[in-house]
Amino acid sequence: MKSIFNYLITIVSMLLSYNSFSQQKVKKLVIKNKEIKYYHPKIKMGPNPKIEELNKDLKIFIQDNLGLLSDLTNYYDLSLNNPEINFPQFLDKIFKLWKDDSNSKKPTEEEIISILGASFGDYIIKNLNFEWKLLTDKDGTDIILKHKKYQVTLFPFNSVEKACKEEKMDFFEAIYLFTVNELSTNKNKLETN
Questions:
Q1: pTM of the predicted model, to two decimals?
Q2: Residue 111 contacts residue 161 (beta carbons within 8 Å)
Q3: Distance in angstroms (rounded) separating the CA atoms of residues 25 and 14
Q4: In this structure, how many other beta carbons lie within 10 angstroms of the beta carbon of residue 81?
């Protein structure tokens, strides 16, 4: 697993820089009788952000990391074969197992960011009509998800990286449910021009 990652991490480190976030107060959202507490981030993008298609190398990077999810689930003795699986909760479980893992041979932070970021992004694409894009602004470049119809942008790799640094847990499900709620309740405000 490590040899593939040396190549992939080199690509990612050259292409990614993380946009600045400022957090507002904690908000609460109730969906399906489940209360979710979250910080609603304001993404500070520079003037005239450039959004473009992913190049071939970045598409390969994402596909390779999607393929490595099964290695990661096997490492933590989990299975993806349950059709009833709540995938965001499943990713939260993997992340918690990784955080609690004291084994020196556990996956690196970069591996977790890459595998879980790609897997979460792929799930969002398949379920919420998003697509991968490359955003470049004054702060650098980031692989993002952009909704195909509405003005909604997500940062799956950045979200995992931020959770690693800030010791956050259960963030995949919170982001997913918040996004579903945003799309369903604010369609008029989110229309693209």
A1: 0.77
A2: no
A3: 33
A4: 7
